[in-house]
Amino acid sequence: MSDAREGRREEIEAILDRKPGTSETRDETERYTAVGAASRATFGNWLTPIEEHFVLHRNPIPDGDADSWTITLVDDGETELSLAELIEELPTVAVAHTMECAGNGRGQHDPETGNVQWDCEAAGTALWTGTPVSSVLRAAGVDVDTDEDRWLTAIGADSTDEEAFARSIPLSKALDDCVLAHGMNGQPLPDEHGHPVRLVVPGWYGVNSVKWLSELRVMDGMVREGSLDRPGSHARWQQDEYRIHAAGEEPAENETVETTGTWAQLEAGGTAPYTFDETVMSLVGRPTGEDARTQGTIEVRGVAWAGDERVERVELSTDDGDSWHDAELFGPDYRGAWRLFRYDWEADPGEHRLLSRASDERGRTQPETIGTPEESFDALDDGRYPWNEGGYAANAFRPNGVTVEVTD
After folding, report:
1. Burial 52-87 (b: 16+ CB within 10 A, else e)
2. 40: helix, coil or strand?
3. How many folded domains does the chain comprise?
4. What is the domain range of residue 371?
5. pLDDT over 50 at 264, yes or no
6. 252 with 271: CB under 8 angstroms?
7. Are 307 and 277 in contact (CB under 8 A)?
8. Which runs of E-coded beta strand occur in 1-69?
9. Distance between CA atoms of 19 and 51, rounded to whole angstroms?
């Protein structure tokens, strides 16, 4: 076993020891540290405990000393802010955010794509405590009132001399609701979640919430190859990976996009949409299907989310899709975070397949299945999610069903 693989194995085992509600996820290329929720019960609650929240990163966790940590901000000039200054001198807020890996559901593709073979376990909702990005940029002297058409590029301290881990989001989104988080669910940010500070982008796929944040750059466009004055390649994680494209395609670099809506890019038929905001999604959390239930009234409970959009409706089927019933949305209602849903099911003895499907405020509804490589984006027209080479942004409802045994 190579030193890199041995180090990754040790890191995964340490995370599993700290997070008993997670389990390791299969990684075809052994490039990532990946653990996800171990039980569907995680998706029966609004707040995801740290012990059950999924983790994914590629490079080893860097050493993070909060007392000496600084963030460099680059615009027309360069400013350095310490984490202590962020916490002590700038406002502190808390945001609720459903973080989902853009590869959640990758393992449901047929044929399988490479990398981490997530089923549906790579999602969780936490309360992130930190400093609004708008306050940080103002403190650094950035003219936030006239620069909203520009982009903010975040760079992680897990970058290497060979490659920078850099992601760009529109400056308008950063100013709207993003935070530099140093706390999670009322506790200091854990190492594997970006200690001592990370960017949190509510409602957007996890790759945009750069961990171990070391640098922020205000730029005229998205990060592209050669656009950063630092060694190594720059654009892989923005322009190559986390793009939705057919097998064999090589996505072209873009300076900007007309819309950051992932689903809107898919509907527009554009080339290789970027994975920014999360597509509409739902999961049944309870019953988990792990144990038999007794006939009678069973509360079916789960979660639904839709990125920047609101969840408008959740439907539930207890007979594998033959009939559907409206579930009740309840509990906290925060932009960028999932909603709880419930349905009282009068269960008869036998084996039952439970399915849920959500719709957002724009009328977009989860597709039933994932299409084939040959169908490409045309699959959307027939109620299937497009198979894509990276296995990104999948939200088909049928693969996420749960089988429940009901006894007398």
Report:
1. bbbbbbbbebeebeeeebebebbbeeebebebeebb
2. helix
3. 1
4. 281-407
5. yes
6. yes
7. yes
8. 22-24, 33-37, 55-57
9. 4
Condensed to tens digits (0 to 9), the pLDDT of residues 359-375 reads: 999 999 999 999 999 99
- With tokens 């792990």, the residue in question is 290
407 bridge partner residues = 294
Are the C-beta atoms of 273 and 243 separated by less than 8 Å?
Answer: yes
Q: What is the DSSP string of 291-312?
A: S-EESEEEEEEEEEE-TTSPEE
pLDDT of residue 4: 60
Pairing of strands 402-407, 350-360: antiparallel
* pLDDT tens column, 275-334: 999 999 999 999 999 999 999 999 999 999 999 999 999 999 999 999 999 999 999 999
pLDDT band at 149 (very low <50, low <70, confident <90, very high): confident
Q: Identify the sign of the CA torsion 252, 209, 309, 287.
A: positive
CB 389 within 8 A of CB 113: yes
pLDDT at residue 120 is higher than 90: yes
- pLDDT tens digits for range 26-68: 998 888 999 999 999 999 999 999 999 999 999 999 998 999 9
Cα–Cα distances in angstroms (integers) from residue 17 to residues 22, 123, 130, in the given order: 9, 20, 26
Closest of 239, 150, 240, 158 to residue 194, by C-alpha? 158
**Domain assignment of residue 22, yes or no:** no
Instruction: Give backbone dihedrals phi and psi of 50, rounded to 5 degrees, phi first.
Output: -55, -35
How far is the C-alpha of 51 from the C-alpha of 287, rounded, in Å?
20
Distance between CA atoms of residues 408 and 400, nearest Å: 26
In a domain, 25, yes or no: no
Q: Exposed, middle or buried, 258 (CB in 10 Å: 0-12/13-18/19+)? A: exposed
Nearest Cα to Cα of residue 128 among 215, 203, 61: 203
Distance CA 195, CA 38 (A): 23
Q: Is residue 225 part of a domain?
A: no
Model pTM above 0.90:
yes
Are 213 and 196 contacting, i.e. CB atoms less than 8 angstroms apart? no
CATH number, domain containing residue 314:
2.60.40.650
Question: For residue 299, is it within any domain?
Answer: yes
